[in-house]
């Protein structure tokens, strides 16, 4: 990966049929070194694929605090919403098996996550 990126490979150019870029794969592996490398070479921390799902959504779903830090530092939007039902990363975290991770909730809130965003299908906010 390093050789390809140093040779000028576009970290946002290669996409799966659903639109996922390599950063998304690195997040779900999870591979912190690869996430760092891709972000340092210009990977888009806000790129979205199927139904508007972002890397921050994946990191929240898997409870990956250290990767969420990297994504937020790279400009990931804590208030991005998916197109399926308007969920944010805070909604996704609180519905996951990592819902008790107060450290991640604090990180998202500190990054500006809005706790009052209601999803579009049910109208539920993260508090609900």
UniProtKB/TrEMBL annotation:
Keywords noted in UniProt: ANK repeat, Repeat
Protein name: Ankyrin repeat protein RF_0381
Organism (species): Priapulus caudatus (Priapulid worm)
ANK repeats: 18-50, 51-83, 85-120
Keyword Cell membrane: no
Encoding gene per record: LOC106813421
PROSITE patterns: ANK_REP_REGION, ANK_REPEAT
Signal peptide start and end residues: none
One Pfam family matching this protein: Ank
């Amino acid at each position: 990966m390093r050789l390809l990126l140093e040779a000028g490979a576009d970290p946002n150019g290669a996409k799966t049929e659903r639109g996922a870029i390599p950063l998304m794969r690195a997040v779900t592996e999870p591979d912190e070194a690869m996430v760092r490398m891709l972000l340092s070479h210009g990977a888009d921390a806000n790129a979205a694929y199927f139904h508007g799902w972002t890397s921050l959504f994946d990191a929240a779903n898997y409870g990956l605090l250290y990767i969420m830090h990297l994504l937020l530092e790279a400009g990931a939007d804590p208030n991005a919403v998916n197109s399926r039902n308007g969920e944010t990363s805070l909604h996704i975290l609180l519905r996951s098996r990592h819902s008790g991770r107060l450290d991640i909730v604090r990180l998202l809130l500190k990054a500006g996550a809005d706790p009052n965003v209601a999803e579009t299908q049910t109208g539920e906010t993260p508090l609900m």
